[in-house]
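Problem: given the chain below (427 residues), write out its structure.
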Amino acid sequence: MYRAEVFLRQLEPRTGRTTQQVVNFVLWPIAVMTVLNRVIVTAVNGAITDDFRPVYNAALAFWNGRDVYTADFNSVDPHYLYPPSGSLLMAPLAILDPERSRWLFIGVNAVAILVALYLLLRLFDLTISSIAAPILVLGAFMSETVTNTLVFTNINGLVLLGEVAFLLLLMRKKDLWAGAAIGLTIAVKPTLAPLLLLPLVRGQWKVLVTALGIPFILTVVAWPLASDPMDFVRRTVPYLLESRDYFNSSIVGNGAYFGLPEWLILLLRVVLAAMVVVSLWLLYRYYRNDELFFLTTATGVIMTASFLLPSLGQMYYSMMLLPLLMSVVLKNSVMRNWPAWLAVYGFMTFDSWWSNRWPTFGRAAEYTKSTLGWSLLLIVIFCVLGYRYLVARREGRLDRGIDPAYLLDPPLDTVSPADEAETATKH
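Solution.
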């Protein structure tokens, strides 16, 4: 009987005794199985949209010395838009056959996302054993941005890794390595290029050496190896500068799709751009010494603006907003309110709003959810920072920053023991 008890004790699952243990035991199995489902089943199954095929074809053409920039921009199929430096980095994909190469690329992106999530935890001084870890993994892999990055098989997972590595290295003053992390992504696609504003305002000029030097060197190497490098300049660049009315969640793209007048589209862009400028000014003026809050919040504002205000923004770009979302663990985070997470639902949800019963409403909701989500996020950040500023100015404490009074050290309304003793003596 005793032996049976010992044997069963060894098989007994560990029981959570604290809230943290219970949350971890509940969420980790769900998170792990969600990751496996997204990578092994959902991504491998693929979808009508295939971002990998044009990249593979371009890599194969570059590898064999054929023309790369031959896309028909009159079609709505995904096009190859990487510069020659990106073609050079993507060329090894052509070593394998298309199917196995795609599987490998899915795996590489999945690993890159997981590593990026781990680095994001470290950025906030959190560990794998914290409850934030399974929440972050589960939330990321349930989102539209991670799911479609894997399903469509594009490079955004590696771009996310470059972004988080850039922020972490920037925080630790490893400027050349921070520049290398973002420079490798810029060599393929310029998604993160606006973030170079951060080292500029922080005086970390060395970042630019590798951030700009790596794409330049790769371009110098790739240019003579490419069969048609000037076609990137003549054909692809003008297309990139155009605004299209399909698969485009920017204000311009959605406005064109729904037939909004030009003046209204311009007005919306100007108003939101003004909010972005004010938000960034408040962040720089009052939070630049609060490095983690400043970097993650400013990154979120800059990235959201770069998706919403220029000519092209696609919903799965929202992966680059994970550092901002993770900042909710900070006491002074701008994400600690329900409108911010309503916005997050808009650009992160994998829910489909197509409706057979109400097709007009369903079409509008489906096509505008990310646009409205990005817009609401910028409005929320502007309102939170603006309200903090106005309150601090009214209370005459701008010299102490604009954090809410209850976060100040010491709090604004506290009374020192000496003052209490003096008051007691007087009475």
